[in-house]
Structures are given as structure tokens and as C-alpha cells.
């Protein structure tokens, strides 16, 4: 009997370890598939154009051409595009984080007529494809004379930043005990003071999640600048790099170098705030 129980225990341990090994192998395969395009982009950025299209393909270049990253500053106005992108990014970041936080606080903590209806309408906007509102929005900004300016790309961020961010902040505020609000009210604080001094310090992880998503959305945005900006001196980084692609031929090594340089800031921001990003995404689903 004892031998049989021992055999069953060993079998259960081996079975659980087998599942762990299978799970790790699956995760490793998924990570490899996800990282392969990034590796191919970086590797191509350090090659000549002829090496990129060589068959069979090379995994690594014969000579590491770090000068490709310097050459992109000579071929296109890379610095100007970065400055234009930051000129849009900074106010959009401030507007989105500030207003989404305020809206989330209002829906989570305040009582006003039609609160659930308004929140349902905001969530419903997430189901609208951007193509549905593209033409009416473009016509509106045309009537306002804002085409070829940064207003269409910056101004909407000061009205909540989108339904997803409002929902995210509301969920995080609802995960905070209401006893904190009641204690502050007893001490004589109003709702503005509760928001600024009591709850705002507690929602930093969610604010960082909103900031990270906003950063990546604006930094990588190609369609918005393409629609509203006509003057090359106003182009953002994503749109400006299109100038590297010629009509009949393209320097793909420079395109890959520019794409790598554009991708690295987003990766760096994620790794610096990874702890808070994961915490913020996890905690927003605690209470609904």
C-alpha cells in the first residue's frame, strides 16, 4: 500500500512538472515569435540594402554599420520630426491623464442624475470604429480652419482622452475603499480635496498605465498626422519617416534604422514603468 501511494505521489509530481515544462516551452515559443520581427528590424538596420535581400538570408551582418543611425539625420530632418512629435505628445499626455482621472473619479465617487446612462454611452463609443467618425470629424475641423495644425491631434485629449481610459480610471477608483472618503468628509474635506489629497496619490499605478498607453498611441500615430497635416515642417516622426521611401527605390537599411530608433523610446518607457504598468492593469479589474 505504501509503495502504491509513493508511486502515485511521484506520478503526480512528474505530471505537474510536465505541465510546467510544456507551459514554459509554449511561452518560450510565443516570445520567440513575438521578438523575431524586432530582431529582424534591428539586424536589417545594421546591414546594407543588398545584404537585407540576400538569399539565403543572413542572420547577422558581415559588418555592423552603426553609421546607418547617423545617416538618417542627414537624409531626413529626423530631429525636427522628433520635436514635432514631442510638441503633440506632451499636451496630449497632460490632457489625457488629467481629464480621464477626473472623469473616472466622477463616475466612481459622485452621484448625479443619469450617471449610469452617461457612463454606458461613453463605453458605447468604444464600439465605434474610427472610420465611422473620420469624415464627420475631418469636416468639423475643416470648418473650424484647423487643418494643417496640431489642434485636431491635441484638443480632443482634454475631454476625457477616450472611453477606455475613463473606464480604466473608474475601475481603479472603485477598488479603493469608500471609508477613506467618509473619513475625509468627517474631517471637513470637500470632494476636490478628497480627489487631490486622498485618492490621487493612491491611483498612481493607473495613471502610469494611462500615460504609457497615451505615449505609445501618440508616438506611433501615423493615420492622424497623415489626415490633418500637409506641411512637411509639421510632420511627426511616424509620418516623416515615410519620406525615406522613394517612388522607385528605397534605402531599406535606413528605413529599418529609423524604425529602430523610433521603437526604442517606447520599449525604454515600458521597461522603466513595467512594475507599475502590470500593477495598474491588474488592480483595475478587482471591482466592477
Automatic annotation (TrEMBL):
<keyword id="KW-0067">ATP-binding</keyword>
<feature type="transmembrane region" description="Helical">
    <location>
        <begin position="194"/>
        <end position="216"/>
    </location>
</feature>
<dbReference type="InterPro" id="IPR000515">
    <property type="entry name" value="MetI-like"/>
</dbReference>
<feature type="domain" description="ABC transmembrane type-1">
    <location>
        <begin position="82"/>
        <end position="273"/>
    </location>
</feature>
<dbReference type="Pfam" id="PF00528">
    <property type="entry name" value="BPD_transp_1"/>
</dbReference>
<keyword id="KW-0813">Transport</keyword>
<dbReference type="GO" id="GO:0005524">
    <property type="term" value="F:ATP binding"/>
</dbReference>
<dbReference type="GO" id="GO:0055085">
    <property type="term" value="P:transmembrane transport"/>
</dbReference>
<keyword id="KW-0547">Nucleotide-binding</keyword>
<feature type="transmembrane region" description="Helical">
    <location>
        <begin position="117"/>
        <end position="141"/>
    </location>
</feature>
<keyword id="KW-1133">Transmembrane helix</keyword>
<feature type="transmembrane region" description="Helical">
    <location>
        <begin position="254"/>
        <end position="273"/>
    </location>
</feature>
<feature type="transmembrane region" description="Helical">
    <location>
        <begin position="153"/>
        <end position="173"/>
    </location>
</feature>
<keyword id="KW-0812">Transmembrane</keyword>
<dbReference type="GO" id="GO:0005886">
    <property type="term" value="C:plasma membrane"/>
</dbReference>
<keyword id="KW-0472">Membrane</keyword>
<protein>
    <submittedName>
        <fullName>Sugar ABC transporter ATP-binding protein</fullName>
    </submittedName>
</protein>
<feature type="transmembrane region" description="Helical">
    <location>
        <begin position="21"/>
        <end position="40"/>
    </location>
</feature>
<keyword id="KW-1003">Cell membrane</keyword>
<feature type="transmembrane region" description="Helical">
    <location>
        <begin position="86"/>
        <end position="110"/>
    </location>
</feature>
<comment type="similarity">
    <text>Belongs to the binding-protein-dependent transport system permease family.</text>
</comment>
<dbReference type="InterPro" id="IPR035906">
    <property type="entry name" value="MetI-like_sf"/>
</dbReference>
Amino acid at each position: 500500500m505504501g509503495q502504491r501511494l509513493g508511486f502515485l505521489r511521484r506520478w503526480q509530481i512528474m505530471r505537474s512538472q510536465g505541465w510546467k515544462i510544456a507551459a514554459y516551452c509554449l511561452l518560450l515559443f510565443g516570445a520567440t515569435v513575438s521578438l523575431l520581427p524586432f530582431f529582424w528590424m534591428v539586424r536589417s538596420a545594421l546591414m546594407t540594402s543588398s545584404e537585407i535581400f540576400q538569399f539565403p538570408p543572413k542572420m547577422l551582418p558581415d559588418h555592423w554599420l552603426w553609421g546607418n543611425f547617423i545617416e538618417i539625420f542627414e537624409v531626413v530632418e529626423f530631429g525636427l520630426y522628433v520635436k514635432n512629435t514631442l510638441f503633440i505628445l506632451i499636451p496630449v499626455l497632460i490632457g489625457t491623464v488629467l481629464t480621464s482621472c477626473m472623469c473616472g473619479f466622477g463616475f466612481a465617487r459622485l452621484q448625479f442624475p443619469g450617471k449610469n446612462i452617461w457612463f454606458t454611452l461613453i463605453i458605447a463609443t468604444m464600439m465605434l470604429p474610427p472610420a465611422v467618425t473620420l469624415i464627420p470629424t475631418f469636416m468639423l475641423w475643416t470648418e473650424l480652419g484647423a487643418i494643417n495644425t496640431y489642434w485636431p491631434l491635441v484638443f480632443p485629449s482634454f475631454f476625457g482622452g477616450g472611453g477606455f481610459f475613463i473606464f480604466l480610471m473608474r475601475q481603479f477608483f472603485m477598488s479603493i475603499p469608500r471609508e477613506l472618503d467618509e473619513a475625509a468628509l468627517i474631517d471637513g474635506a470637500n470632494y476636490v480635496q478628497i480627489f487631490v489629497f486622498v485618492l490621487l496619490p493612491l491611483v498612481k499605478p493607473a495613471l502610469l498605465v494611462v500615460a504609457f498607453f497615451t505615449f505609445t498611441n501618440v508616438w506611433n500615430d501615423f493615420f492622424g498626422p497623415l489626415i490633418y497635416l500637409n506641411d512637411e515642417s509639421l510632420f511627426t516622426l511616424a509620418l516623416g519617416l515615410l519620406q525615406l521611401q522613394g517612388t522607385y527605390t528605397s534605402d531599406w537599411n535606413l528605413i529599418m534604422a529609423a524604425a529602430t530608433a523610433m521603437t526604442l523610446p517606447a520599449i525604454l518607457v515600458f521597461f522603466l514603468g513595467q512594475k507599475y504598468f502590470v500593477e495598474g492593469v491588474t488592480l483595475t479589474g478587482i471591482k466592477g
